[in-house]
Specification:
It is a single chain. The chain folds into three domains: about 70 residues, Trypsin Inhibitor V, Chain A (2-Layer Sandwich); about 60 residues, Trypsin Inhibitor V, Chain A; about 60 residues, 2-Layer Sandwich (Trypsin Inhibitor V, Chain A). Strands 12, 13, 14 and 16 form a four-stranded mixed β-sheet that branches. The protein has a three-stranded mixed β-sheet with strand order 2-5-3, with helices on one face. It is built from four helices and 16 strands. It is α/β, with parallel strands linked by helices. About 10% of the residues are buried. It starts with a helix and ends in a 9-residue tail after the last strand. Helices cover about 25% and strands about 30% of the residues.
Length: about 250
Amino acid sequence: MKRILFRLSYALLLLAIFMVGAWFTFERSIVGRSVAVPDLVGKPLSQAVPLAERVGLRLEEQKSRARYDERMERDRILSQQPESGSLAKPAQVVRVVVSLGRADLKVPELIGLPPRAAALKLGEQSLELGAVSWCRDSATRVGIMAQDPEPESPAAKGASVAVLTNRGAPEFRFVMPDLVGQDAERIRPRLEAKGFRVGSARYEAYDGIASNTVLKQFPPAGFPISGREVISLTVSRAAEPMAPSR
């Protein structure tokens, strides 16, 4: 029995020694045929190619993934795969993405646009809408009539563009007349003929007052008013007859 156990233990020991030796042989063969990937990020292609070839690797530029970058100069490597320090087999390909440099931004044409639309258009170009000044000129179309910098001027990312906006013909303001007590049917066409907007009247029954008489008005008499504002009137109507009592 002891002899059998001795032989079994001896066989297991030989198996363990064989497996450990095979593992070390395999590991040495793999590591011995591997190289460390150099750090290529930030280097120009002209330097990165020989660096990769020096350790037996090949460089492949992924042109479809090239992009603009504010911090990395043109033709310098933005990223690499595998990363630096990784182990790679000789002749393995290292794929790199190259910077196109800073984007050449130009100020877009804003003439004729309202400020809100101009701000959206500038945002698409990584620019901002700056100071908005305005004037009124009936001979020029409404919208932006001047900008600084001018269209097609070079600009840095985040730069602002100041604009001058035309709000159209000068706005005249009048003193609101006193309409209370006047006939609404007669006063409405007179107001509309002078360019004022009169809203739908609100009717109220009022004893002792003739129908269609203006009871209230807004804006009140004496207040400034422009042609864009709506005049609201409260107008009297005939009182409904009371039902006879039974």
